[in-house]
Amino acid sequence: MGSSGIGKQAITQKSNTKIEQVMSAYIVITISIIAIFFISLYNKYISLSVDTTQATSQTFVEKVQIVTKVISEQTNINEYAKRAEKTDVLTSDDAKNTTKSVIQSQKLNYLHKKDILEKNMTVLNEKTIQNAQSLDNIKKEIIKYGFIPQQLYNIIETQQGTSGIKKRIALMENIRFLTAFKAFSYMESFIQ
To answer: CB burial class (10 A; 0-12, 13-18, 19+) of residue 90?
Structure first.
């Protein structure tokens, strides 16, 4: 009797599948051993880079804090986090020096600097728009009431018999108004 090729093919396919499974298991085990080796090597590096004068009886939390401190010093993550949470870099009294320190910082990379400055630029734009709107509101109030408070303006309008006082106050207001209007026009051109 002869042997068919189908039976031999099924046997070789089963043996190939077993060989693939054994090879896959071997590769996974090898990668796991290499990963464990590198993790232990990294832990040894961290333990050597931590100050040895510290007490050896530390809790797990203290060890994690020390390790994260070392990692953050190496990667400068904390430097970025400290500067990124501040939104007054461009609007503070010392904006020039703070901006200069962000730009010249050796601990921050280009993207960190860009993120910090863009975030602060957005805040600066919002504050500038708010200030321009406040200036417009003040101009409108001055045009409407002059420098006399609204309450006094209402009292003067109700007492119509005091026309001499009204004329003098109106003249003073006219002079003050023109002076203020000129000052505000200079301020507006300065802002723009």
So the answer is: buried
What would the DSSP string read from start to end of 100-112?
HHHHH-SSS-HHH
Q: How many residues make up the chain in this entry?
A: 192
153 — pLDDT class (breaks 50, 70, 90): low
Q: Which residue has the tokens 């009431």?
A: 145
Higher pLDDT, 126 or 2: 126
Tokens of 81: 């986090």
In angstroms and rounded to an integer, the radius of gyration of the C-alpha atoms of the chain is 38
Token pair for 177: 């108004």
Determine the Cα–Cα distance for residues 192 and 182; give it in Å rounded to an integer: 16
pLDDT at 69 exceeding the cut of 60:
yes
Buried b (16+ CB within 10 A) or exposed e, 10-44: eeeeeeeeeeeeeeeeeeeeeeeeeeeeeeeeeee
